[in-house]
Specification:
The structure holds 2 protein chains of 2 kinds. Chain A is mostly beta strands. Chain A contains 1 helix and 8 strands; from the N terminus they run βαβββββββ. Chain A has an 8-stranded antiparallel beta sheet with strand order 1-6-7-8-2-3-4-5. The longest helix of chain A is centred in the first third of the chain and has 9 residues, at about 5-15. Chain B has one domain (about 5-215): LmbE-like (Rossmann fold, 3-Layer(aba) Sandwich). Helix content of chain B is about 40%, strand content about 15%. Chain B has a 7-stranded mixed beta sheet with strand order 3-2-1-4-5-7-6, with helices on both faces. In chain B, α1 (about 15-30) links the parallel β1 and β2 (about 35). Chain B is globular and about 55 Å long. The chains are: A mainly beta, B alpha/beta. The interface of A and B includes residues 47, 63 and 65 of A. Chain A: It comes from Cohnella zeiphila. Chain A: This is DUF1806 family protein. Chain A: Pfam families: DUF1806.
C-alpha cells in the first residue's frame, strides 16, 4: 500500500460515484461490515495527513465517515483498498470498495 | 451602542466553555443574540454517566440541553440548522454559505462569534469557521461585522498569536456554570471539583476568562 495523497485518493474514490459498490468497512477490534451494497453519490477525502478522513454519501440518505486512514492501493481486481495504520504498522481501520462482492 | 450578535457554532455545547459568559453579558446589555447551531451533536461519544442516552435518543436529548443552555444564558433566538454532526466539511459549500448569508441578511449582526478556521481542532469547528469567514468575506468591506473567533489548537501562537480580546467574565460565571451543566449528557461537573475547592473558586480559576481572536480579512 502507499501513503494516501489527498487528491489522488479522492480521484480514485470518485471513480465509484454513480455506481453500485460493495463496501467492506472495519474498525479493528470493534466492528466490521462486509459487502453492504450502496449506490455511491459523493466521495471525499479530507485532512492534512498523515492520517485522513474519508466520507461517502450514498443512496440519497446515507453517510459513511471514517477517520485515521493513512494508506491505499488499487488491487488487480480494480478494488480500492484504504487502510489506516498506527506507528507500529498495525491496522486500525479499513475501507474497501469493489464493484463486486468481497469473498465471504 | 447596541450590538447585534450572531453566534455560529456546529455543536450543542460549543457555546458553553468558550463564550457563554460573554453571551450572557451581551444579553445583560440588551444586545439581541441569535445562536445558530449547525448540528445536534448526533455523533457525540458521551451519553451521560451512567449513560442515559443512546445513539438514537442523543439528538433529542442534546437539543433539549441546548435549549436549556440558551435559557441559562438568556438567548431567546436559537436556530438549529439541521446539519449532521461530523459532516460539515463535506457539505455542499454553496448551501452552507447560503444558509449563513440568509442569517446575515436577516439579522445584520455587528458581531459574529465562530471558530477560527484552521485553529479549532475539530473538522466541524474549522469547516464552520471557514464557511463563516468565506461568506462574510464576500460582503462589501463596510458591511462586514466584526468576527470574533474561538481557537484552541496546539499551534496557535505561531499561527495567529495571542488573543486580542480577553474578557474577565467573573460577573457571569453563574450563567456559564448553568450553561455547562445544561449539557449533562456531555459534562460531569462534579468531576472538576476536587475535594475542598469550592465550585465557585474552581470555576473562577478555570473559566473566569474568555478569549477571542479577531478575524482579519486582509
Amino acid at each position: 500500500m502507499i501513503r494516501i495523497n489527498r487528491e489522488q485518493t479522492e480521484a480514485e474514490l470518485r471513480k465509484f460515484v454513480g455506481s453500485d459498490v460493495y463496501v467492506h468497512s472495519e474498525a479493528t477490534s470493534y466492528v466490521f461490515v462486509r459487502n453492504f451494497k450502496v449506490r455511491l453519490t459523493e466521495a471525499f477525502v479530507a485532512g492534512d495527513g498523515p492520517s485522513y478522513r474519508v466520507a461517502l454519501r450514498f443512496d440519497g440518505h446515507g453517510w459513511l465517515r471514517m477517520e485515521g486512514l493513512t494508506h491505499y492501493e488499487t488491487d488487480e481486481a480494480g478494488r480500492l483498498l484504504l487502510a489506516g495504520f498506527d506507528d507500529r504498522g498495525r491496522m486500525d481501520v479499513a475501507l474497501h470498495l469493489g464493484r463486486g462482492p468481497f469473498p465471504e | 451602542m447596541e450590538q447585534r450578535v450572531l453566534v455560529l457554532l456546529p455543536h450543542p455545547d460549543d457555546e458553553a466553555f468558550g463564550l457563554s459568559a460573554t453571551l450572557a453579558e451581551h444579553v445583560r446589555n440588551g444586545d439581541p443574540v441569535t445562536y445558530a447551531c449547525l448540528t445536534l451533536g448526533e455523533m457525540g461519544r458521551n451519553m451521560g454517566v451512567p449513560p442515559f442516552a443512546n445513539r438514537v435518543t442523543l439528538p433529542e436529548i442534546r437539543k433539549a440541553e441546548l435549549e436549556e443552555s440558551c435559557r441559562a444564558i438568556g438567548i431567546r433566538d436559537l436556530r438549529m440548522l439541521g446539519y449532521h454532526d461530523k459532516t460539515i466539511e463535506f457539505e455542499d459549500q454553496d448551501k452552507l454559505d447560503a444558509d449563513i448569508d440568509a442569517l446575515l441578511q436577516e439579522l445584520r449582526p455587528t458581531t459574529v462569534y465562530t471558530f477560527y478556521p484552521g485553529y479549532s481542532v475539530h473538522p466541524d469547528h474549522d469547516a464552520t469557521g471557514a464557511a463563516v469567514v468565506r461568506t462574510i468575506g464576500r460582503l462589501p468591506r463596510n458591511e462586514r461585522p466584526v468576527v470574533l473567533c474561538l481557537a484552541f489548537a496546539n499551534n496557535l501562537e505561531q499561527g495567529i498569536g495571542q488573543p486580542d480580546v480577553v474578557r474577565d467574565v467573573s460577573a457571569n460565571l453563574k450563567q456559564k456554570l448553568a450553561s455547562i451543566q445544561a449539557h449533562r449528557s456531555q459534562f460531569q461537573v462534579a468531576e472538576w471539583v476536587s475535594g475542598d475547592v469550592p465550585l465557585e473558586k474552581a470555576m473562577q480559576e478555570r473559566f473566569g476568562t474568555e478569549r477571542f481572536w479577531t478575524y482579519r480579512f486582509d
